[in-house]
Design a protein that fits this description.
The complex is a heterodimer of chains A (582) and B (261). Chain A is an all-alpha fold and 582 residues long. Helix content of chain A is 75%, strand content 0%. Helix content of chain B is 34%, strand content 23%. Chain B has helices at residues 57-64, 86-91, 108-118, 124-134, 150-162, 180-195, 207-213, 231-237, 247-255, and strands at residues 19-28, 31-41, 46-50, 72-77, 80-81, 93-96, 168-172, 199-203, 216-221, 224-230. Classes of the chains: A mainly alpha (582), B alpha/beta (261). The A-B interface holds A 305, 308-313, 315, 319-323, 325, 327-328, 331-332, 335-336, 339, 399, 401-402, 404-405, 407-412, 572-573, 575, 577-578 and B 28, 62, 65-69, 86-91, 93, 95, 97, 101-107, 110, 113-114, 116-124, 142-144, 146.
Chain lengths: 582, 261
């Protein structure tokens, strides 16, 4: 039976790699792979080269410091393992795909074989992750291969612990020990150990040093070293130190010596997991179903849908049965938005501003705090312009999977486009106007304490309020245009590709959208400059700013209207069955 | 409680058929999915669209309902040309895909409110209530689709489709996912709507179902029409060699498919 599972795993991987290589014959994947590869190379190796060129290679640590770092790593590892025992609440569930569940669960395969299969499968991910962490984790010494093996050991223990602790959790639940009781027991035990360590430290060590200069932490490091490397703590940390020790080995001999205890820990974990006889099948079936739904949602570009809505939301307004049909799509998408950005999100935003404002006022005085709030508001407006259209996806990126339904509606295609884009646009605009109001109210002086007159603030505020909605609308049209015109380039279909190629495609699309947005804003910028130049002579600066913004807004509105019409044509031509997720 | 079917929307002109298809051709690149298909369905007729997998049934339905434009040919729904006046044509039809496509954030009741606005159905509340009761999902008005079974999702899609009293109805495998009672109700509902004057086209592989409820049948193979006519005409045409051939027999003879061992 193991042979069949090995056959399946090997051929699945092989076919996946072969399919990926074969699709490189298509230019869209080839370009994507080139750009993705270059980006990865630049990120990993370029970063190293830049560090060397700039002479910023970190100075080697002293042996004492290495020992402290190793102890801290062991402590961090201990915390991770403890959290695995405390936080999760589900029964043991091995993650299988829906196809694996359908084929393997009814097959005459023992539970132990399934666990072996799962462990084997997880090794692929562990090896890849170890390689990735080795490449991006440039800290530490040692040979590349040693670091890779050390990461593999750490990740393998984490994987086995996760599995073993889930089995143990299920066994406890089966014996009537609830999650709450288990957590109390663990937290109690942790509390006792921590209290013991504190008691020992107070009796055996001098009091902790007071840090007067934040740049000099050597006294604090010495104190930490005393706690971690004397008394009971080294004994507590020993098994965790064995696992992380290969990462800190400086030579081949030290590495081999450090690796042996780590391998022993892995072997013990393996025996523990394999000998656990826990029923995981039922929970695994449910997990695989949920996993498949999440994957489908994520690949359809609907990242928010990865967390399924649990209950219906109240509609934002009453939708009457008669009237402009595009309003129905706007209404529908607003309900979708409210599942993620409901009233609670707005309350949080206001609360953050109040808390941050009062904290800043306390530290910087009234005018300083005002400038900071205004600056933060302006920065958030800029950030919402850049990332808002990518984050708010309650438009075609959410609805293309039901494009057939939308196309059946008795309404013009451009109305569908408008209805789709209105919801994220209105949300962005509301947010930006709120932030703009904050900026106008609080921007009473410059950082150099020069007063900013109210007339200036109102003029510039009105000008920005006029222009922003249309910039948002155009910025939202672009990703929707990509989704409609190049559906195979974006992650929409269930079989959307992954890998370097997709990463490269995303980079190309991102730059393409930024370029098109810049080109779309150019005429409006020119119009603004021209009208401002003329009107400032005639009416003065402040009216000129508003009039110039009005001219720019009219031009942007015209562009947006043309964009909606063009996108409507694209929607008419769009066919989900063609070219999506190839 | 049984639904009182409202009178269907009047056709724009007085066509010979509520569905008129002439020379419909759909190419995907060079590949002809449907070639030169012509037929008509009059008020009160139920036509079964059958053919082997890949015959072009779904493509035909998608062209007829205005989801994809045909490469050549014309489609008229109640006298409205789908190419020239798609909005008026779509206002008069409903298409039920094999897989119910719903909006995951709208509750059952919100789906109906949304559909009412899209089709401008004034005073829809009473009709919506009756539909929900007829389809036995009245108790699920505030439920999201994610919490509904597949059969219930299909019932919700049907409720949305019937809300505007379409005069032309397309079904793609309408019985998938329904329980025996649901199947019985669906058959009754189809026949009742046909009796009220709707033209109905059903694509299905369930030949015995089509035999029960269809007055006409159209057999497609490789995107081309093999035959269309009344059920009796089709059966008669293919029963010359063997007496008393049923639709299944006729289908195998018409498409040249082997019935198997």
């Amino acid at each position: 039976m193991g042979g069949a599972l090995l056959y399946y795993e090997w051929h699945s991987r092989f076919n996946r790699v072969r399919a990926r290589l074969q699709r490189l014959r298509q230019p869209k994947y080839l370009f994507g792979a080139i750009v993705g590869g270059l980006y990865f190379y630049w990120y990993v190796f370029g970063g190293l080269a830049r560090q060397r060129y700039a002479g910023r290679t970190p100075a080697p640590l002293s042996p004492d410091s290495w020992e402290l770092v190793e102890s801290l790593a062991a402590l961090a590892f201990l915390v991770v393992i403890l959290l695995m025992w405390i936080i999760p609440h589900q029964r043991a569930a091995l993650a299988f795909s829906e196809a694996e569940v359908a084929f393997l669960f009814p097959a005459p395969i023992g539970r132990r074989t399934l666990i072996h299969f799962k462990l084997l499968k997880s090794q692929t991910a562990i090896l890849f992750s170890a390689l990735f962490m080795t490449l991006i984790g440039r800290w530490g010494g040692g040979h590349f291969l040693f670091r890779a093996v050390a990461w593999w050991a750490v990740l393998s223990v984490v994987n086995l612990q996760m599995l073993g602790s889930s089995f143990a959790r299920t066994m406890l639940l089966d014996r009537g020990i609830s999650n709450r009781r288990r957590r109390l027991l663990f937290l109690g035990a942790v509390g006792v150990v921590v209290a013991g360590v504190i008691l020992w430290a107070r009796q055996s060590l001098p009091p902790p040093p007071v840090v007067s200069n934040p740049r000099d932490l050597s006294a604090l490091a010495d104190y930490a070293r005393q706690i971690l490397e004397s008394g009971p703590v080294p004994w507590l940390l020993a098994p965790f130190r064995w696992v992380v020790a290969p990462m800190f080995a400086s030579g081949a001999k030290q590495f081999c010596l450090a690796l042996c205890p780590a391998l022993a820990v892995i072997a013990l974990h393996y025996v523990w997991v394999i000998r656990s006889n826990v029923a995981f099948e039922e929970a695994s079936v449910e997990l695989s179903r949920k996993f498949a739904e999440r994957i489908a949602a994520a690949r359809s570009g609907n990242w928010q849908a990865m967390s399924k809505p649990r209950k219906g939301k109240r509609p934002p307004f009453e939708l009457r049965p008669e009237g402009w049909p595009a309003m129905a799509i706007y209404w529908k998408n607003l309900i979708g938005v409210r599942h993620f950005l409901g009233g609670r999100a707005w309350i949080w935003l206001v609360w953050i501003f109040i808390v941050a404002g009062s904290a800043m006022q306390h530290g910087m005085g009234r005018s300083g705090a005002g400038v900071m709030i205004a600056a933060a508001a302006l920065m958030l407006i800029f950030m919402s312009l850049v990332s808002g259209p990518q984050m708010l996806r309650q438009d075609f990126r959410q609805d293309l999977r039901v494009a057939d339904v939308l196309k059946m509606y008795p309404m013009a295609a451009w109305q569908v486009v408008l209805g789709e884009i209105l919801a994220p646009a209105s949300l962005l605009i509301r947010l930006q106007w709120l932030l703009l109001l904050l900026a106008v109210v609080f921007f009473t002086s410059t950082p150099n304490h020069l007063a900013v007159p109210i007339s200036w603030r109102i003029s510039f505020g009105v000008a920005a309020a006029l222009v922003l909605p249309f910039v948002d609308f155009i910025a939202l049209l672009l990703p929707n245009a990509v989704a409609l015109m190049f559906p195979a380039w974006v992650q929409l279909g269930r079989n959307s590709p992954r890998g370097f190629e997709t990463m490269g495609q995303q980079i190309i699309l991102m730059f393409g959208q930024m370029l098109v947005l810049a080109l779309a804003l150019l005429p409006a910028g020119l119009a603004f400059a021209t009208v401002y130049f003329i009107c400032s002579y005639l009416f003065g600066m402040l009216p000129a700013v508003v009039l110039a913004a009005l001219a720019a807004a009219i031009l942007l509105a015209t562009e947006a209207a043309i964009g909606v019409r063009l996108l409507g044509k694209a929607f008419e031509r769009f066919d989900w069955s063609e070219g999506v997720g190839e | 409680m049984r639904l009182e079917i409202p009178p269907p929307m009047p056709p724009q002109s007085a066509p010979s058929g509520l569905i008129e298809v002439a020379g419909l051709t759909k190419l995907y690149g060079e590949f002809p999915a449907v070639t030169d298909l012509s037929f008509a369905v009059r008020a009160g007729e139920v036509i079964g669209l059958v053919g082997p997998n890949g015959a072009g049934k779904t493509t035909t339905l998608r062209c007829l309902s205005g989801i994809i434009p045909p490469t050549r040919g014309s489609v008229r729904i109640c006298g409205c040309d789908m190419g020239r006046d798609p909005i008026e044509a779509k206002r008069r039809l409903a298409f039920f895909a094999d897989e119910p496509r719903l909006f995951e954030y709208l509750t059952v009741a919100q789906h109906l409110t949304f559909t009412a606005r899209i089709y401008n159905v004034a005073n829809y509340q009473a009709a919506a209530r009756d539909l929900l009761e007829e389809l036995e999902i009245a108790g699920k008005a505030d439920t999201l689709p994610g919490e509904l079974s597949r059969g219930m999702k299909q019932k919700l899609a049907i409720a949305c489709g019937f809300l505007h009293s379409p005069q032309v109805i397309f079904f793609d495998e309408p019985l998938t996912g329904l329980d025996p009672l649901g199947i019985r109700r669906m058959k009754d509902s189809i026949l009742k709507r046909a009796a009220a004057g709707a033209a109905i086209l059903i694509s299905s592989h369930l030949l015995h179902l089509l035999e029960e409820i269809c007055s006409h049948v159209l057999i497609l193979k490789d995107g081309k029409k093999i035959i269309d006519g009344t059920m009796d005409e089709v059966r008669r045409k293919f029963s010359e060699a063997a007496d008393g051939a049923n639709l299944e027999e006729a289908f195998f003879r018409a498409t040249g498919e082997s019935k198997g061992p």
